[in-house]
């Protein structure tokens, strides 16, 4: 075989860069542990029931499928599953399908439609009764109760397979044009997140584009995560970032309006109800962009041993006008070992992680996000108590993370919903006027998932809640086939309307619930009847705790909800509050897992050896296996505290259990400076629940001003200058220390570890590339005498000059100045091949290829590269040219 001289180096480079094709990487990445395949993509609601199990479990992208599994997709909506099999074949299952997995290449379609993409290397076998059909190409099949059909073309559901959702979660800026409110186009959106031992701080910077010829005032609305507290707001005035100061709400509004009349640059951030905050921004100049910054802090508790950071990106606005640029960076540092860090929502995110640090980066342009952004960190197995403290002079704060130890033998390969005992469920669906179309869609998705996970012996009662309570049936229904359709038809007949009588509705739920009933309220907790006061309603709910032994759970289906009401409802029986901004099927799975598995109950926290005060929550809810509770409180340190300890007691399956851990106070200002703010947020929540008397309002304003935390009675005001602050009597306060040292340390530590991993990867790549090139040269022959080249290298490779020696290689470009500079090549002449130095030069030059290469695109070095033939060709003086060697090969 003859190889053209221009192809020698190109062939070697192509071989090195093509060792790990994408498809092969996915297929061969499956471990030999019996699994059949991996879920590549999933749309809507898809479930799996493992062999021998009674309950179903939702499937998500990257989940594994095993022999004996039964797969099911829901009928309503665009539900589909894309499964990559171990040998490289694929299955795509459509809505309303039921599929049995026999082995890695054999499947039985019991209902619905599917696309099978077999290969000649791995034909797929489809069982139909006693018959077996085989396909080694793309084909489509339909199974009905009467027939099994070979479709001649792709079914219509494949066309809309990747359609997205339309729920609105991301912040937006509205302006008034011609008497109508219209949203401004978002220019670029940048999110920086630092996570230090489950405490996350998010900093958002984004611009809004004014494409009109009018100076505008805008209202920026932002839904905050449930447990988060805003710690900063600012906007750019000219080229300078101006931070906001916290001011009593009514006073802040007066100042804002006065500045607005003078046509200066004010900004005002205030609470808008529920968990939604809004900022008034002026001016937004014609044909320009307005840049704002928002910062908030939250705690990420564990669920099933995993903390989840979520950031809302879904927006109907962005479907119409894509983001020009989106950047999300998450840096995490953990004292406990991290078993894995993943980004299940975005496959194009770059994830770099080791045992204690991780970095996740997402960068996109001209994008309309189809899903929210989520990072999951799985913490190494363990349990018991983790105690964190902070001290400032005579004041101290503590945080206790309570995590039950994992039972032995629970190292599952995948999380399946446990069977447990029969469940008695009471589902109360809010259908009042405050439930919009997006919230109703989320309610339907959650109910479809939850009902689809039940076992046949589970019992269900369903009602709607608005002006009055309406029941689906007098008694409980079994979780038999057809239950989901019956429940959804009942809900469809009651469109959201009118006001909500939550007092009367909750009274009926209390009367209907038995001792073992799990009550699930699916609504926003916004009451519009009676006094309409959410704090008063929450107080009435908590007072009802002695009248029931049932366990209540609250599920918020939309971005707006009354947190105080939902938390008060969930306090009955030690239940939980959850939100459907994440995957509804995932919420249903975790909630059902919590209800089916016994957890810790009747929990109490005691601190011995040091005085404490204001410990939140004052009553701990039930703690399911794999979950975690966060307890925050004040300390009064005095002298030595070496003997102080934390004790958590409770019951597990009726037996008393107890955990203890030492409590050590660090030196003054030494670490964990984020604790005061976290505790202050809980204390303000407690004050807000006590009513709206003048004394309570005054205390809330004083406390929120001291800790710079936004409340219904205080606002963050951007003033352009110190002169304005002096004029309006606004004090420029020292910013509350918000973990700056800790979060800066996290950024530095993660950056250092990422650099170390990049250097190690580059070294491995260079060694791998050197081995590959040695093998390529060795394969040209051995002991071939090669003289000093008599022809210029530029002539060999088709370039007019020796300096452009690579320009003749198709697709590699570069021209006469020396090509492929991004790979580390530079120009040279034929003299380097003299005195037997050609091979050495070529090896040294190729070993530097990775210098400018994108590390994310590097193929992984082969684990078992073929051994080079003994000996290598010598470039001896006065014999043959390198071109002759290539021609003869």
Alpha carbon gap, first and last residue: 6 Å
Instruction: Choose one word for the global shape.
Output: globular
Output the radius of gyration: 32 Å
Main sheet record: 13 strands, mixed
Mean pLDDT: 74
Summarize the structure.
This protein is of the alpha+beta class and 889 residues long.
Describe, in plain words, how this protein is organized in 3D.
With 889 residues, this protein is an alpha+beta fold. Helix content is 22%, strand content 33%. It contains 17 helices and 45 strands. Strands 1, 2, 3, 4, 5, 6, 7, 8, 9, 10, 11, 12 and 13 form a 13-stranded mixed β-sheet that branches. An eight-stranded mixed β-sheet has the order 20-19-24-17-16-26-29-28, with helices on one face. The chain has a seven-stranded antiparallel β-sheet with strand order 15-14-18-23-22-45-21. Helix 5 crosses helix 10 and helix 8 packs parallel to helix 9. It is globular and about 85 Å long.
Topology:
Layout: H1 8-17, H2 22-28, E1 37-43, E2 46-49, E3 57-58, E4 64-65, E5 70-73, E6 80-85, E7 90-93, E8 98-101, E9 106-117, E10 124-128, E11 131-135, E12 138-143, E13 148-151, E14 172-177, E15 180-183, E16 185-196, E17 199-210, E18 216-223, E19 229-237, E20 240-243, E21 245-248, H3 249-261, E22 267-273, E23 276-284, E24 288-299, E25 306-311, H4 316-320, E26 323-333, E27 338-342, E28 350-353, E29 357-367, E30 373-379, E31 384-392, E32 395-403, E33 424-430, H5 437-452, E34 459-465, E35 469-471, E36 477-478, H6 483-492, H7 502-512, E37 517-522, H8 534-543, E38 551-556, H9 563-570, E39 577-579, H10 584-596, E40 600-608, E41 612-616, E42 629-635, E43 645-652, E44 655-662, H11 675-688, H12 694-707, E45 714-718, H13 722-728, H14 740-778, H15 793-796, H16 838-846, H17 882-888
Parallel strand pairs: 9-10, 16-26, 33-34, 33-37, 37-38, 38-39
Antiparallel strand pairs: 1-4, 1-6, 2-3, 2-5, 5-8, 6-7, 7-9, 8-9, 9-12, 10-11, 12-13, 14-15, 14-18, 16-17, 17-24, 18-23, 19-20, 19-24, 21-45, 22-23, 22-45, 25-30, 26-29, 27-30, 28-29, 31-32, 32-42, 34-35, 34-36, 40-43, 41-42, 43-44
Helix pairs in contact: 1-14, 5-10, 8-9, 11-12, 14-16
């Amino acid at each position: 075989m003859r190889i053209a001289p221009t192809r020698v180096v190109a062939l070697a480079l192509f071989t090195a860069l093509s060792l790990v094709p994408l498809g092969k990487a996915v297929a061969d990445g499956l471990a030999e542990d019996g699994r059949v395949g991996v879920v590549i993509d999933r749309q809507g609601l898809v479930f799996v029931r493992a062999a021998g199990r009674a309950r179903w479990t939702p499937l998500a992208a990257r989940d594994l499928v095993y022999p004996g599994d039964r797969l099911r997709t829901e009928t309503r909506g665009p539900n589909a599953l894309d499964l990559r099999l171990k040998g490289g074949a694929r299955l795509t299952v459509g809505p309303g399908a039921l599929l049995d997995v026999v082995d890695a290449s054999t499947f039985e379609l019991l209902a619905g439609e599917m696309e099978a993409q077999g290969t000649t290397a791995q034909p797929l076998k489809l069982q139909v009764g006693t018959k077996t059909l085989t396909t080694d190409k793309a084909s489509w099949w339909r199974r009905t109760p009467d027939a099994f059909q070979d479709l001649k073309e792709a079914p219509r559901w494949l066309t809309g397979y990747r359609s997205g959702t339309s729920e609105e979660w991301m912040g937006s800026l509205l302006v008034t044009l011609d008497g109508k409110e219209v949203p401004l186009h978002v220019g670029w959106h940048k999110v920086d997140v630092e996570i230090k031992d489950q405490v996350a701080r998010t900093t958002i910077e984004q611009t809004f584009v004014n494409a009109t010829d009018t100076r505008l005032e805008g209202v920026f609305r932002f839904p905050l995560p449930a447990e988060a507290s805003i710690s900063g707001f600012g906007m750019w005035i000219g080229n300078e970032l101006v931070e906001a100061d916290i001011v009593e709400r009514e006073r802040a509004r007066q100042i804002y309006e006065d500045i607005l009349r003078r046509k200066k640059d004010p900004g005002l951030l205030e609470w808008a109800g529920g968990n939604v905050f809004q900022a008034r921004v002026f001016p937004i100049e014609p044909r320009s962009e307005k840049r704002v910054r928002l910062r908030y802090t939250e705690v990420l508790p564990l669920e099933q041993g995993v903390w989840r950071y979520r950031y809302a990106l879904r927006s109907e606005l962005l479907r119409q006008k894509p983001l020009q640029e989106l950047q999300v960076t998450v840096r995490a540092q953990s004292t406990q070992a991290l078993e894995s860090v993943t980004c299940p929502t975005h496959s194009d995110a770059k994830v770099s992680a080791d045992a204690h640090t991780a970095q996740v980066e997402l960068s996109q342009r001209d994008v309309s996000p189809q899903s929210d952004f989520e990072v999951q960190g799985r913490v190494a197995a363990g349990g018991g108590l983790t105690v964190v403290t902070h001290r400032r002079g005579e004041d101290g704060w503590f945080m206790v993370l309570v995590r039950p130890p994992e039972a032995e033998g629970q190292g599952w390969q995948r999380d399946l919903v446990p069977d447990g005992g029969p469940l008695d469920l009471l589902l109360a669906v809010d259908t009042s006027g405050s439930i919009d179309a997006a919230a109703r869609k989320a309610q339907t998705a959650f109910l479809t998932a939850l009902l689809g996970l039940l076992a046949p012996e589970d019992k269900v009662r369903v009602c709607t809640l608005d002006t009055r309570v309406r029941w689906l049936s007098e008694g409980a229904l079994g979780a038999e086939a057809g239950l989901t359709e019956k429940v959804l038809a009942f809900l469809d007949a009651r469109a959201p309307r009118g006001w909500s009588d939550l007092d009367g509705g909750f009274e009926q739920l209390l009367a209907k619930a038995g001792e073992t009933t799990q009550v699930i309220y699916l609504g926003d907790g916004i009451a519009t009847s009676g006094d309409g006061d959410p704090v008063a309603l929450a107080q009435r709910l908590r007072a009802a705790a002695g009248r029931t032994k049932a366990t209540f759970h609250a599920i918020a289906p939309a971005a707006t909800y009354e947190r105080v009401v939902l938390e008060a409802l969930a306090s009955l029986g030690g239940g939980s509050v959850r939100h459907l901004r994440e995957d509804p099927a995932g919420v249903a799975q975790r909630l059902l897992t919590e209800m089916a598995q016994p957890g810790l109950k009747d929990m109490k926290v005691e601190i011995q050896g040091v005085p404490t005060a204001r410990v939140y929550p004052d009553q701990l809810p039930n703690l399911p296996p794999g979950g975690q509770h966060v307890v925050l409180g004040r300390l009064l340190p005095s002298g030595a505290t070496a003997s102080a300890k934390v004790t958590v007691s409770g019951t597990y399956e009726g037996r008393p259990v107890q955990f203890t851990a030492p409590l050590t106070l660090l030196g003054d200002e030494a670490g964990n400076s984020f604790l005061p703010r976290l505790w202050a947020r809980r204390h303000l929540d407690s004050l807000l629940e006590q009513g709206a008397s003048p004394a309570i309002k005054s205390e809330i304003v004083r406390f929120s001003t001291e800790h710079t935390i936004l409340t219904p009675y205080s606002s963050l005001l951007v003033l352009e200058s110190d002169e304005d602050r002096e004029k309006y009597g606004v004090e420029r306060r020292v910013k509350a220390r918000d973990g700056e040292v800790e979060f800066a340390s996290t950024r530095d530590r993660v950056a250092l570890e990422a650099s170390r991993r990049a250097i190690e990867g580059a070294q491995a790549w260079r060694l791998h590339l050197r081995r590959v090139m040695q093998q390529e040269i060795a394969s040209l022959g051995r002991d071939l005498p090669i003289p000093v080249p008599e022809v210029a290298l530029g002539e060999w490779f088709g370039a007019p000059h020796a300096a452009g020696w690579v320009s003749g290689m198709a697709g590699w470009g570069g021209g006469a100045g020396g090509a492929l500079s991004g790979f580390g090549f530079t120009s040279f002449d034929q003299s380097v091949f003299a005195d037997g130095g050609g091979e050495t030069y070529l090896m040294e030059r190729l070993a530097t290829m990775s210098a400018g290469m994108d590390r994310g695109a590097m193929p992984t070095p082969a684990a078992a590269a073929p051994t080079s033939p003994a000996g290598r060709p010598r470039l001896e003086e006065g014999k043959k040219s390198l071109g002759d060697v290539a021609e003869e090969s």
